[in-house]
Specification:
binds nicotinamide-adenine-dinucleotide; Isopropylmalate Dehydrogenase; 12 strands; alpha/beta; 3 domains; globular
């Protein structure tokens, strides 16, 4: 028997510990031997240790190569920068993958709306170049723009900078198209607003177009982000894979998740060359925290993505089938239960999925 697969488990904040425990229980029943290493980041870690993203956790993730992470709080008043953004930057997790597919038994208006959103994590408006009106850097930017004759902005103007590097966009595009090919997809649509933001989205689009000929088996086209949102709602079957810069990808993936039945079932992955971190699309859902009412399926399906990434395709498929089976049998948490179905707790949902793995 070989060594167990080492995985860092990061419960996170809010409903994180509950859905992480559920995912751990299900993955332990998947047939793959797993060695879990539990670490804390986020608000909980900050309150306990004074550090929201301890260096030791980053080192542990790099050493394992794999992590399953619960959501963490990002508050405007927090004394630390977004832990999620910092984690992605420090581990160079440059591509996000959010595959949304409808599950039989989950009420959705759009049964054909399966779509994967791939997003570049480098740069864009999440780069941390964000300055309130009174910040000296905002004043310096306003001055520079005025001196260059570009714009005269008042002292009440805050500034968020949107940098997009051609090298970073090419790397992300190459990985995105490789993901699409490896996962049997045929079409990738590049999402942008290059008609308005030529300086940033123009770079993103050109980079994707320059890489596309390396993948002749894929049809690569593009779409303005506003049009993409409208088409996702009006004719969701139009898209297979959307490749977008960070901000559009964030928004469009929540929309796609909602079309496919809600955040409770939408998994995600953060991919890099050195390691990969898997997590649900949803946040800490404070309303559900500590009540055992959150849906663990998004976190469990993120675990299935982790298994697949680690080469455990059979186990990943079994977990996905067990989830689909439970849902088809009307085993549902409160976010999905309707028509007189008695909602299950987070733990009971996990138990029902484990039963179907036996
Ligand atoms: P959210 O995803 O936590 O909640 C949005 C809505 O979806 C709420 O109505 C919530 O009750 C519901 N929901 C989410 N997950 C659910 C689940 N598993 N089961 C049932 N219902 C669920 O988004 P928010 O309220 O905008 O954010 C709350 C906090 O989470 C914020 O601090 C935000 O920064 C953080 N956040 C973290 C991540 C992450 O760590 N990856 C992602 C998004 C938001």
């Amino acid at each position: 028997m070989g060594d167990p697969l080492r995985v860092c488990l990061i419960p996170g904040d809010g409903v994180g510990p509950e859905v992480a425990a559920a995912a751990r229980q299900v993955l332990d029943a998947s047939g793959v031997r797993l060695a879990w290493e539990v670490h804390e980041i986020g608000q909980t870690a900050y309150q306990r240790t004074g550090e929201a993203l301890p260096e030791t956790v980053l080192e542990a993730i790099e050493e394992c190569g794999l992590a399953l992470k619960g959501p963490v709080n990002t508050s405007r008043d927090a004394p630390f920068r977004s832990v999620n953004v910092a984690l992605r930057e420090r581990l160079d997790l440059f591509l996000g993958a959010r595959p949304c597919r409808p599950l039989a038994g989950v009420p959705t208006l759009f049964p054909d709306a399966g779509v994967t959103v791939l997003r570049m994590h480098d740069g864009d408006l999440y780069a941390g170049l964000d300055y309130a009106p009174g910040d000296p850097t905002a004043a310096a930017i306003r001055r520079t723009l005025a001196e260059a004759g570009a714009a005269r902005l008042g002292d009440d103007t805050g500034v968020s900078v949107k940098p997009i590097s051609a090298v970073a966009a090419e790397r992300a595009a190459r990985a995105a198209l490789a993901w699409a090919r490896a996962n049997g997809r045929e079409r990738v649509t590049v999402v942008h607003k290059a008609n308005v933001m030529r300086g940033s989205d123009g770079v993103f689009l050109a980079a994707a177009q320059s890489v596309a000929p390396l993948f002749p088996e894929l049809a690569v086209d593009d779409c303005l982000v506003d049009r993409a949102c409208a088409d996702l709602v009006r004719r969701p079957g139009r898209f297979e894979v959307l490749f977008a810069p960070m901000l559009y990808g964030d928004i469009v993936s929540d929309l796609a998740a909602a079309l496919c039945g809600g955040l409770g079932i939408a998994p995600g992955a953060n991919l890099g060359e050195r390691c990969a971190v898997f997590e649900a699309v949803h946040g800490t859902a404070p309303r559900h925290a500590g009540r055992e009412t959150a849906n663990p399926v998004a976190m469990i399906l993120s675990g299935a993505l982790l298994l697949r990434h680690a080469g455990e395709e059979g186990a990943a498929a079994r977990v996905e089938q067990a989830v689909t089976g439970a849902i088809a049998d009307r085993v549902l948490t409160a976010d999905l239960a309707s028509d007189g179905v008695e909602p299950r707790s987070t733990g009971a949902m996990a138990d029902a999925i484990v039963e179907r793995l036996r």
